[in-house]
Here is the input.
Amino acid sequence: MTPAPTPTPYLNPLDTMRFPVLAISFLLTLPTTVCAQKDNAIKSAAMHADTNWPTALKLWEWAEPGYQEKQSAAALAAIAEKAGFTVKKGVAGIPTSFTAEFGKGKPTIGILGEFDALPELSQEAVPFRKPREGSNGYGQACGHHLFGVASLSAALAIGEQIKAGKIKGTVRFYMCPAEEGGSAKVFMARAGLFDDCDTVLHWHPGSQNLAGDATCLARIAAKFRYYGIPSHASGAPEKGRSALEGLILAMHGVELLRQHTPDGTRLHHTITSGGGAPNVVPEFAEGFFYVRHPKAETVKQLYPRLLKCAQAGALATETKLEVVYLGGTMEILPNNTLAEVAKKNLTTLNDLKYDAGELAFALRIQETFPEKVPLDGIAKVFDSSGKSSGGSTDVGDVSWIVPVTGFSTACWVPGTPGHSWQAVACGGTTIGKKGMNLAARTLAATAWDLFTEPQLIKDAKLEHAKRLDGRKYEAMLEKDQPPPLDYRNPPKQAARE
Here is the structure.
């Protein structure tokens, strides 16, 4: 891949061939000095993103699992500390979490970051399937190495503006582990870490530039562990009780349950441990289960039915069931006031285009897709208003406490599905770098608008209260439930513990 050219941080707003009329009109109403100051914040975010690109690549190479992001956390915290931010490590009882804050007083604007990877998706930065030699088997298939670095780069840029006296208030960066099933933000929310924020911003790598008033699915996750009696599967099968058969019956029950769930329900499961030899009755088996729906209230009603399937498997096979409840995440509560600000900035700042090397990479990787998507889509910003991502995120819990908005930038070749080796490959190239830089600039521009236009925050809070409609946030956790710091550990190890 060829090195990424330095992106244009903030283009001429009078270039009507590239900018929407709405964005031009908005910029022309601002005093020249204000535009220049915002321009400086955007340029700074671009500079920090470029400077921190080697760190993003390190996170990509380390690809650390949820709650085990030790190297990644240390690297990002060191950058924040060097910039003069006040860093608090191990927040909410999570060793790899931290907050980094600069400034004082109101408003307090939060910027979220993530950095965990996914199993079985190790991949080199090449457009064909090639797991990395010597890796831990994990890959940054959701682009969280880009997520964390872009968000931190934007926070650093805003911190500089606060230090220079250009804006007043507090910027706080949140490094949030284990988004992929571990739900760290839920525990951080329960600990009150977002209670004093006025608004919170986030973004996510994707194959398109997306912004708008979007939401996601609520989700509950659990592991079902079965303990049976081992014996010779042929010589003495009557003496054994198969843990695997208990799990298989549970999974079959879940399949039958699908027909009798509300529209929009998603049920997922995988076997994380199922025995070691066909001639041994498995003593231990473990399955990992999700239940999702657009509404958290429905997810809460569905989980007991999922649990009954697990219990039935144990009952029928005379095995013992252990339930490891990992907690749940809420659906995102949209905020159109904030979404419009982010969309305007993303549309104005989007300058993505591929050079010759990137184009060749993109065309080659598209050969691995069943359908090809036009590559010129990276020059556009698509409206996600009123839509759902189809996935789940613990950002949802934050959105029930404080007004939140997010967006996506094209860090992957158009058509790339998330949680794929293709996403990992793109994230290790300048295609990922350019998308990350655009995200950092958009975050900084959006944060600047919120710091300098108090009415935006007031309107966002009014909308937030209206969407809550008197409902109170309550984390989908058991009483005193600790963060599942070992949820990515091998299941046999968890069983012995």
Remarks:
- The longest strand covers residues 218-227.
- The chain has a mean pLDDT of 93.
- Residues 430-452 form the longest helix (23 residues).
